[in-house]
Amino acid sequence: MLGRIGLGFVMLNLNAGALRALLGQGSGAINFVRQLGGAFGVNLLSIALERRSQLYVDSFTAAFEAATPGNDSREALEGYDQWREERAA
Questions:
Q1: Alpha-carbon torsion, ordered 71, 73, 78, 79, to 10 deg
Q2: Total number of domains in the chain
Q3: Phi then psi for 68, rounded to 5 degrees?
Q4: 23 phi, psi to nearest 5 deg
Q5: pLDDT above 70: residue 5
Q6: Can you spell out the DSSP letters for 11-74?
Q7: pLDDT tens for residues 50-78?
Q8: Range of the domain at 21
Q9: Is the dihedral of CA 48, 50, 53, 57 positive or negative?
Q10: d(CA 65, CA 12)
């Protein structure tokens, strides 16, 4: 928590220093880099979430099948995925 507060204070000073050094183009350059960093950050986060989701589905399926022998949970999960995609469309 303390680090985030400190980072907030540091970013204000960094922006002020960058704008003072670059004069006219500083604001546009800083906003462009912020937008680009945000886009990359959101994209990388969604990729990581998608990969972890598949790992969790696989581990959930293995645990469910171990707990309930004779139950085909893979088909149930695939049916749920199809239902969810139909609802999203």
A1: 50
A2: 1
A3: -130, 85
A4: 55, -105
A5: yes
A6: HHHHHHHHHHHHTTSHHHHHHHHHHHHHHHHHHHHHHHHHHHHHHHHHHHHHHHHHHSTT--HH
A7: 888 888 888 887 777 777 766 666 677 77
A8: 1-88
A9: negative
A10: 53
| Predicted confidence (pLDDT) per residue in 15-31, tens digit | 777 777 666 666 777 77
Distance from CA of residue 43 to its chain's centroid? 6
Residue 57 makes CB contacts below 8 A (sequence gap 6+) with 77
Instruction: Read off the tokens for 27.
Output: 């604001």
Q: What is the pLDDT of residue 50?
A: 87
Cα distances (Å, whole numbers) of residue 69 to 24, 62, 75, 79, 84: 69, 11, 14, 19, 26
Q: Residue 82 — pLDDT band, cuts 50, 70, 90?
A: confident
Whether the Cβ atoms of residue 19 and residue 30 lie closer than 8 Å to each other: yes
Structure tokens belonging to residue 4: 């985030």
